Amino acid sequence: MIRPIVKDTFFLRQKSLPAGKEDLPAGIDLLDTLQANRERCVGMAANMIGIRKRIIAICHEGNVIVMFNPVILRKEDPYEAEEGCLSLEGTRKTTRYRRITVKYTDLRWRPVTGTFRGFSAQILQHEADHLEGILI
Fold first, then answer.
1. For every one of its 136 residues, what pLDDT tens digit does the chain have, with 9 covering 90 and above?
2. Which residues are part of the catalytic machinery?
3. Which terminus has fewer CB within 10 Å in the chain: N or C?
4. Which of 79, 81, 101, 102 has the alpha carbon at shortest distance from 91?
5. Strands, E, within 1-136: which ranges?
6. DSSP conformation class of 49
7. CA-to-CA distance for 78 and 98, rounded, in angstroms?
8. How many CA atoms lie within 13 A of 108 on its CB side?
9. Sign of CA dihedral 112, 96, 59, 43
10. Integer Cα distance of 14 and 93 in angstroms
């Protein structure tokens, strides 16, 4: 189901709670909502659609990946970036890393560890900030 984008900064600043198997439908809603906004958005966190759970979806190499409880294990090669967000107006500067290693659970509820580079790594870091209530 495509959900509306949340713009309430009080809600968005709250830390997200761990996701469980019962949150798989929320992951599908996040996927649907990202797909519906794909022309102007490359990643979303569940709090952006009103669900305070640790779930993100990112565009990566032509596909969309849904991640439950992502944890960034390693960050390498910092750089300065400027980012926008569907939930916020304008852009903001921040430090990102060109290569990151992430552990997460996929839509089939299997554990995955992967390395992301370049723009995919930047998107993932932005969405991981959302899970911590950090607005960039």
1. 999 999 999 999 999 999 999 999 999 999 999 999 999 999 999 999 999 999 999 999 989 999 999 999 999 999 999 999 989 988 999 999 999 999 999 999 999 999 999 999 999 999 999 999 998 7
2. 127
3. N
4. 81
5. 43-45, 55-60, 63-85, 88-105, 111-117
6. G
7. 6
8. 3
9. positive
10. 21
H or E element, residue 24: helix 24-36
Model pTM score: 0.95
Q: Which helix (DSSP H) or strand (DSSP E) does residue 36 occupy?
A: helix 24-36
d(CA 10, CA 46): 15
Q: With 0-12 CB in 10 A as exposed, 13-18 as middle and 19+ as buried, what is 88? A: middle
Q: Specify the residue for token string 């290693």.
A: 101
Q: Find the helix or strand (DSSP H, E) in which 122 lies.
A: helix 118-131
